[in-house]
Amino acid sequence: MGITERRIRQKEEVRTAILETAWNMVEAEGWQSLSIRKIADAIEYSVPVIYDHFKNKEAILYEFVKEGFRLLAAKLLAAKEKQTTEEEQIRAMADAYWNFAFQNQEHYQLMFSLGMAGCEMGQSMPEKAAFRNVLVEPIDLLLKKHNKTNVNPCLKYHTIWSVMHGLISIKMMNKSDVSDELNKMVLDDAVNGFIKNLKG
Fold first, then answer.
1. DSSP for residue 119
2. Looking at the structure, do residues 121 and 43 belong to the same domain, yes or no?
3. What is the phi-psi region of residue 147: left when phi exceeds 0, alpha when psi lies from -120 to 50, beta otherwise?
């Protein structure tokens, strides 16, 4: 292995160590407590070494946001592919979204504290676009199947996302006296109403 290749490999190893250490801190203490100094101390490198790889703490968090959207898109796609009708695909993806949020709370809070995965944001983060596209596809097909070509599928995506995210956010902030079971029933009822609206 030449000197250049060795340097590239070493740089990648340091970058990986930074991300792994940072994520361990996020899981242990929450992402608000993350700092460049803490990461440097944990991996026994100087602060400038961290800045050689990441512009600031936000750049590290951004990597976790992208990873979160990749994971979420994969979960939704897997749920979607198990169903044959658009209605069941939407229901299955709503369930997968709900489960992902509570099984990956650190990722979820990071992903959506930085803003919604809107239809206009695909160019700035392809991972967000991939998540959005998985959810939009059956919505678009269902609208076309029922000759509702004047309805914007992206608007409907925002609608269903707002419902899911709203219920999840309320639950995560512990400001709801509603039980988990009832909260899920509310989600199911909202999703069924959403599907009915797409078809009606």
1. G
2. no
3. left
Q: Are residues 68 and 50 in the same domain?
A: no
Question: What does each C-alpha distance from 49 to 40, 62, 182 come to in angstroms?
Answer: 8, 18, 49
Asked if 105 and 163 sit in the same domain, the reply is yes
Helices vs strands, H then E, count in the chain? 9, 0
Tell me the pTM: 0.87
Asked if 34 and 94 sit in the same domain, the reply is: no
Contact (Cβ atoms closer than 8 angstroms) between residue 135 and residue 157: yes
> Could you read off the pLDDT of 71-86 as tens digits, one per residue?
999 999 999 999 999 9
The string of pLDDT tens digits covering residues 54-64 is 999 989 999 99
CATH number, domain at 24?
A: 1.10.10.60
Domain hosting 185: range is 64-199
Per-residue CA distances from 5 to 2, 10, 35, 49 (Å) = 5, 9, 30, 19
